[in-house]
Model the fold of this input.
Amino acid sequence: MLNAQITKSRRGFKVHAELQLHLGDALALFGASGAGKSTILACIAGIEDPDEGSVQFDGLRFFPPHLPLHQRPLGYLTQDPGLFPHLTVGENVLFGVRDRAASPQETEWIETLKQRLQLAPLWSAGAASISGGQARRVGLARMLARRPPLVLLDEPFAGLDRQSVRELIDDLNLWRRSEGFSLIAVDHQAEVLERLCPEQVMVMEAGRVVQRGSWEDLVTSPATPLLRSLLAPL
Amino acid sequence: MINHRNWLRLGAFAFILALLYPFVGLLTHVGGWKLGPEFRGSALASVRVSILLTALAMVIIAAFGTPVAAYIARCRTRERLLWQALLLLPILLPPLALGILLTLAFGPDSVIGSLLLRLKVEMTNSATAFTVTQVYVGMGYYVLGAVAAFDSVPSILQQQAALLGVPPAKVFFRVTLPLSRLGLAVALSIAWVRAIGEFGAVVVTAYYPSGIPVQLWVNLQSFGLPSVMPLMVIFLLVALPLPWLVHVLAQYRRDA
Done:
């Protein structure tokens, strides 16, 4: 279970959130740009440390004190997947599992990722030479290759076409059920988040949590005028 | 009709021509070049000293400078500023002053100098003195260049590598170093050029064994230009091509 109380100062306001997430559950973090959603994910991943609070996952304390990034059993994917440009697509995907002796199950899992995310034709290509959409798929495969029990997604589908987003979300949902990882996803597009994390949503505004619950509650009784505006069709 | 762009190109060409003009000196008639055995021995010895001992200095610079640069690149702004300000000191020091300070600091009257002397390590007019001077001359240039090379690696790549469960040392060797190697090569080539061409500091600390710059000066003083020209050509061939190629390659990679 993830248990986090995070307080972090940002220019002009303070981000504060408390969240609990059971193993295998998915939580959507929704809100306008600059509401503090990415800060929460960055504090859980360890890219930043909270000013106050604590983060604990499955009995392992992430903070305080700061647990080094490589000791955190999680995957973190952002809009920029951060592929290693000097390596091939295949080397990128295998980067986190290279040093481990691969079991038949692991080999099969990598093969599944390779096929489902359509990476086979790109496998030997340089990571610097592929398109943005392909890079996002490689980033996803690389993150999932080591089977993290906690997955953090920070607008990983921004800029992708609807068909690609739909396929990626369907794959992620399938793997969340089969692999049993917990998921926290951040986006400012409600339809993306609702498809990815249908069970529960937490809404943030200016660093504060203004509503949490089901998507149905959110749509029928939005807590703030801004939230109502964010959910309204264009 | 010459268009605007071609006027600019013409201007740039004239500028480069003026900048490279001193190379015309190589074609100037200074009398017959002196290549006799009395010059050949000392010339070859100075080439050997310059190449071998500067290469040794570069190994020392890379071995000690790279981890320091990697550390500084990860420092926060204030601490980094402090380190960089300190690294600038030996760079900004006039070479002659650096030579005098090195002689005093490592001389027999200093604590370190007397200790080294007891260990039979000569710190003036010796290969050790020559190498140590080269290290002091080149180290600041290398470390500052290496910090810039490490800075050019986006931090998100190192974070992603760590979040894939890879410990910091492996992240350095598998991500940071490969992505900054060209920048490191450029930094080392600057240190090489700076060190192999050093005269002011070396002439004070290590008149013997003479490197190429000191030998050039000795030949110029004693025998005039005809004895300098062959050694100067050798010096240009030894000192310039490698760093020149590294820089051109780095520029090409950056622009590609």
